[in-house]
């Protein structure tokens, strides 16, 4: 099918020249304005904005804003909100105002399903979420049953996008594992590799399995593969000693930043000087409370976003994010920003209107996601296939002087 190139930079600058959402005529729009002016909702929604747009498209979001994975969820919430604000300032989607409602799931599958039900009761028409893989899989079963369109910014487990109504922005776990091994091999970073992974976590074990396959194809030797579980994720002295004794030149860590920060601290205390390489779950390590970021100097991670990139889109996004939240955005914020703009592009391709129900929107977006082409923060010319997977080039960053630098 013919692809539509959708530039985020152009989207921000678009004038609000689209027709009123749902095909409303002038009289209908005026009536909507009078009705909205007479009654504001409990959340204090601006009636003037809604009336001028001619309707509201409701997009929900789910992720952890409290608990151990809150760095991810807050980044996604903030990145998505920036995109929504830009889109509304530029005229909305097909002339409709976008309303965004983000619910906390504490990185818990049951609470994520509860958050989904809350958003359904609110009137959600499409879901941007969830953030982490376990909750995403639980919610994906519900969205499939409801025929609710779902785009996850960072749910990377294969099962997250197993249903035809679910698409993703990030790479899947197998793709991350293969890309990591290929990057290490092609750039000759090391030949003897140790792996420390969480065998109780589908994200970590999924990446490791594919990494091991591609490592063999790249001629890399895995000299130690040491597992831990959620019940033994505080003391890594045994795993580090085995990696050191095996002569590992690089330790691959397909794990989340919380455990990774402990590993770097314990490696330093043990005098184990080596290279460390992670995936997108590592992003956030520089924000760990009471963590000495100098221990992460030289740490490499596969991620599609580097905040120090000099292209206009990244520069503008980083500035806006800093102004709004007083911190440098991580990859998860960029994933969410791209997810909202992917929704915008697909909704415009499908001529989605505010009066369409969630199921009708889902059917339309499943087709339109195959038509669009997105120049985003996490990749240029991104496209999607029927299996919900994105196609874009992988990138890597390195921690230099306490900040991410593109490799």
From TrEMBL:
<comment type="similarity">
    <text>Belongs to the leucine-binding protein family.</text>
</comment>
<keyword id="KW-0813">Transport</keyword>
<dbReference type="Pfam" id="PF13458">
    <property type="entry name" value="Peripla_BP_6"/>
</dbReference>
<dbReference type="InterPro" id="IPR051010">
    <property type="entry name" value="BCAA_transport"/>
</dbReference>
<dbReference type="InterPro" id="IPR028081">
    <property type="entry name" value="Leu-bd"/>
</dbReference>
<feature type="domain" description="Leucine-binding protein">
    <location>
        <begin position="57"/>
        <end position="401"/>
    </location>
</feature>
<keyword id="KW-0732">Signal</keyword>
<feature type="signal peptide">
    <location>
        <begin position="1"/>
        <end position="22"/>
    </location>
</feature>
<protein>
    <submittedName>
        <fullName>ABC transporter substrate-binding protein</fullName>
    </submittedName>
</protein>
<dbReference type="InterPro" id="IPR028082">
    <property type="entry name" value="Peripla_BP_I"/>
</dbReference>
<keyword id="KW-0029">Amino-acid transport</keyword>
<dbReference type="InterPro" id="IPR000709">
    <property type="entry name" value="Leu_Ile_Val-bd"/>
</dbReference>
